[in-house]
Every structure is written in C-alpha cells, then in structure tokens.
C-alpha cells in the first residue's frame, strides 16, 4: 500500500493574519505536510529490516495465502510489546508465525504468547517459525479454533497486549473480548485498520470496510480506551486500556 502523493499545504503565519501583532517567529510560514510521499512511506516501512527468520516465515505465509503484517506494523508491535514489558500476549490470527515472531522479540524473556487461528496449517507454520527462531516451547500456546469460541475461555484482565489480524467482519466482537482480557494499562492493536485506503473513503461501503470503519468508531468513542491510528503497513489501530479513574 502506498499513499497518494499530495502537495504540501501552506498556511500563513500568525504575523500575516489581519490585526496580528508582530512577534519573533521561527519562519514566515508554516509548512504542513498533507501526506508523506510514497518514497518516504517506503523508507519508513523498511526502516527496521526483517531478519532472515522473519523473511522465511513471510515466504511460508505467502505460499499458503496468509497475509501477515508488514515490516512497519511488525516493528511497531515489537516496540509496543517491549514498552509494555509484556508477559502475556494474545494474538488472533497467526499470520503463519510472522506477527508472533515480532511480538515474541519484544516480550520479556519469560513471556507467553497465546496465538489463535482457525487454520491448522497456519498454526503448523507458526510453530515451525518459532522453532527456527529458537523460541522455547513453553513460551507459546498455539490454539486451533475459531477466535470467538476460544477467547471467552481466556482469563479476564490477565494480558498485557491483544493483537488482532483475522476475520474483519468479527473485529467489533474481537474488541469486546480484547478489552475484557486486558489488564489496566494494557494495549490492543488491530491490523488492516486502513484496509487498502478504503476506510477513509466514505464512498466505500463493502462489508469489510464498513466493519473496520465501525471498529475505529467504537475504539475512538470508548472513554476506557486511549487510541491512536498508526499509518504503518495497511494501518495499525492501537489503544491503551485506561484504569477506572482515568476513564472517568
């Protein structure tokens, strides 16, 4: 995905507005970028290069038709897991192991990744990638099954991070489960939050686009969540679960 290149929007400085007082200023006019160029987006996306293990995992994912997170979103997930000092992470959709490798690299050494995928082959490939990376077996819990059947069996408030990259039509339901599973101060993340540039276009009304757009509204309007939309990969919607006092 590459954003459409747009001209830089220039706005007059305060000193040029009618009735403005003269005052020291850093420049005569402020330049506000309307969008980064495709070249800058590509540079940012590849700023942290994948290692050979993730590269091979990505190749295996492509061979079975899985669509894992890109390098930019993966790097963001790794940083998020590290910032949270994450010990418990839930992943909905394995990406055949690609996203799990990013998450495990950011988690603490004794952290456990619980990964759920309805495709047994994706689970198998994730296990293969984790073994190649030297991840101990006791650091991963791989579950084959439908997410909405598995997630209700996981413990409330026991996880630091929940990452979702599965059926877009179920994103709103994943959100309910994610908020329940997270501890206060934990974070959630949803991949494909811009969905191939369709979410920002109100004329796009296909079911998946509508579902992702609704997810964004739900996250943004929830006082218990502190959200941000990161323009990495195909969009990464993140939010921190506030404690009760902050939410109030």
Architecture overview:
This protein has 9 helices and 9 strands. It is of the alpha/beta class and 248 residues long. The chain has a single domain (43-247), classed as Vaccinia Virus protein VP39 (Rossmann fold, 3-Layer(aba) Sandwich). The strands form 2 sheets. It has a 7-stranded mixed β-sheet with strand order 5-4-3-6-7-9-8, with helices on both faces. A two-stranded antiparallel ribbon has the order 1-2. The longest helix has 15 residues, at 207-221. It is globular.
CATH architecture: 3-Layer(aba) Sandwich
Order of adjacent strands in the largest pleated sheet: 5-4-3-6-7-9-8
Approximate helicity band: 25-40%
How many domain units?
A: 1
User: What portion of the residues fall into strands of 2 or more residues?
Assistant: 15-25%
Radius of gyration: 20 Å
Low-pLDDT ranges = 1-30
The CA-CA distance between the termini, in Å, is 38 Å
The overall pLDDT, averaged over residues, is 88
Oligomer: single chain
Order of helices and strands: EEHHHEHEHEHEHEHEEH
Q: State the fourth-level CATH superfamily.
A: Vaccinia Virus protein VP39
The main β sheet shows up as: 7 strands, mixed
